[in-house]
Amino acid sequence: MMSDLFPLTRWGLPMPGMFLCAGPCSAESPEQLRRTAAALAGCTLTFFRAGVWKPRTRPGTFAGAGEQALAWLAAVRDEFGFPVGAEVGTPAHVEAALRARLDVVWIGARTTPDPFAVQNIADALRGADVPVLVKNPVSQDLEAWFGALERLYNAGIRRLAAVHRGFAASTEGPYRNAPLWRIPIELKRRLPQLPLLCDPSHMCGRADMVPPTAQAALDLLYDGLMVEVHCCPQEAWSDAPQQLSPAQFRQMIASLQIRRESADNPSFETEIRKLRHAIDEIDGEIIDLLARRMDVARQMGRLKRRHRVSTLQPERWKEILASRAGAADRKRLSADFIAQLYELIHEEAIRVQEEPLFGQTEQQDAPPAP
Ligand code: PEP
Ligand code: MN
């Protein structure tokens, strides 16, 4: 599937060791765009970004400068030589972006999950030779992300990449949008040839977390970054807290380390083999322990049924969560991780206790004598 996508090396855009996009959340005025670009002059950017039509959650907030801003982007390209790109959300946006000869367009997180909108955009892009980036949907829906990529591929787009910008999640954490790295990792497993980029700005929601999050993405072999940079972040008309100043951006780029999948170093290979062996053994023990735990849960299910006692024991469940969190803390395991793991284990324990109801195991137990 999607076997003839272009690798980034064939995109015909600058790739300074990785895909690197920077620019403000929104184009606010010709001066703001020019000042930001001027402060980035000399950086090799794959493209300079600016939102022209802004998908705002609430009406009445700044919704972007609209089509006039495409000319401001074109002026940045002419003066500083940066390829330029913007988000498109409708066929009319696509037509205007193509008329302005934008070098890249992207589909935003609110548009990606809407099959009608994505299909309309894909139809408008048919025959256009423009690279398209597809942000993950706001919700934790890998299939919708995949489906949007497929619609663009089916419309003939071959310079296609995914942008991971994080997901709406109920767990409180430091992120504006939780990374949930397992979702893009699964996308990469299914489509290894699809370039994968990270947008740490919308993920973090605050500037100080952007550099470490960008490094975390590179550590996971991401192909590059899309970063919000504003000439004067505190005055930005949208997403002010998460935009880097040009100086902060330069500092981040200078300190980022690009990772490789292997080291070509015999002592690394020996060490990693030993550690992987240890991990394999521990995983074997984890699976044995889980199997034993589920066997005990089955016995408990039988006992509870015999005594007409409910499978769910809210007080016991509360106690398990609290005591495991305490034990995990003493072993320096993250509370969030242990809570999520135990939710999964508990869900499975309930499932195995209910198995007999679905005719999957042994004989019905006789009810106890009254
Ligand atoms: C953006 O990149 O400006 C934007 C609106 O991002 P997202 O679609 O990821 O929210
Ligand atoms: Mn933004």
* Strands, total number: 8
Radius of gyration: 25 Å
Shape type: elongated
Q: Major sheet, described briefly?
A: 8 strands, parallel, barrel
**Distinct ligands, ions and cofactors found in the model:** phosphoenolpyruvate, manganese (II) ion
Instruction: Report the span from N to C terminus.
Output: 62 Å
Binned, the helix content reads 40-55%
Low-confidence stretches: none
Strand order of the largest sheet: 1-2-3-4-5-6-7-8
**Structural class, judged by helices and strands?**
alpha/beta
Helix and strand pattern: EHEHEHEHEHEHEHHEHHHH
The averaged pLDDT comes out at: 95
Tell me the fraction of residues in β-strands, as a range.
Answer: 5-15%
Number of helices: 12
In short:
This protein is α/β, with parallel strands linked by helices and 370 residues long. The protein is built from twelve helices and eight strands. The chain has an eight-stranded parallel barrel, surrounded by five helices.
Note the main attributes of this structure.
binds phosphoenolpyruvate, elongated, alpha/beta, 8-stranded parallel beta barrel, binds manganese (II) ion, 370 residues
Describe this structure in words.
The longest helix is centred in the last third of the chain and has 41 residues, at 266-306. Helices cover 45% and strands 9% of the residues. The chain has helices at 30-39, 68-80, 91-99, 115-125, 142-154, 182-190, 200-204, 210-219, 246-255, 266-306, 314-330, 335-354; strands at 19-23, 47-49, 84-87, 104-107, 132-135, 160-164, 196-198, 224-228. An eight-stranded parallel barrel has the order 1-2-3-4-5-6-7-8, surrounded by five helices. It contains twelve helices and eight strands. The mean pLDDT is 95. With 370 residues, the protein is an alpha/beta fold.
